[in-house]
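The pair is quoted verbatim underneath.

:::
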Amino acid sequence: MTLMRTVMIGVGIALTGTLLAGAAAAQTRSTSSEPALSRSKGQDYPTRPIRMVVPFPPGAASDFLARVLGQKLSDAWGQQIVVDNRPGAGGLIGGTVVARANPDGYTIALIGQPHLTATLLSKNPPWDPLKDFAHIALIASMPNVAVVGPGLQVNSLSELIAQVKAKPGYYNVGSAGVGSSSHLAAEMFNAAAGLKAVHVPFKLLGDILAEMYGGRVHYYLFPLPAVMPALRDGKLKPIATGGRVRTIALPEVPTMSESGIPGFVSETYFGLLGPADIPKPIVARINAESVRLLKTDEIRNRYQQNGAEPAPSTPEGFYKVQEAEYSRVKKIVQDIGLKPQF
């Protein structure tokens, strides 16, 4: 338990620090690419619609982020950004679509932690998450939120821990699939709190919510934007968030660190990438426009109201985040004993 708790705390703190560094780098570097753009064909991009692949179904946190940013990119460029949901195999299907696409900038993806985990859980990974993609920009970070359904009459994280501890192996914890960010978050939370619960993976958000409403899945650690509608409707109860500080979206909900697990952080992040070999001027153009939009009040407010925090970066900054996170996720997968699934 101690080892897993230490790993998760390290992931959260190190990732947060990297995100902040990436965001700061974006402010100082984003303008440096503009002269290159003015001398290249990148300034003519885009001239037709762009496909933005999301490796998860509608309603997922990545889907929300993609649709908000995609609409604003469409408005800015006068070209439609088509969000293409390609769920399956923990993100491998969507990732494969992008890895094999023409590297012309007209197929990109908005991905999260499963982009890394999926290859670790594949018997024969179809691509390398670092080498086979062009890293464009970090987009947002967000806390996971611990929620409970009607099947658990608890009002705080400490009450949840006490109730689940009282009946080891009796309660069900849900996830968006083996190796998903919600699965890893649940495993690390259970380890830190000393809990034994039955992991129940799902493919569709609607199925997850239906099982929680019915009381058959008792608790879940969601990336916050995915579950905000259910929280606003009062159908599910948030009892703690995984950020270092309370989130603007749920200011009355304490953090996990405040709620009995000191130092525990449970966050995830999302970014834009494309197939390898996209011309650098096009990568720079997508990055510059995305960074500009992420700093606007409209996107910042929409993201924050739904539990996400804009975290714009340079392409190099996003690659460093991916590289560091890949090493950490690999260690977590090994620590909790996940085996190849696909």
Q: What stands out?
A: The longest strand covers residues 133-148. Confidence is low (pLDDT under 50) at residues 1-39.
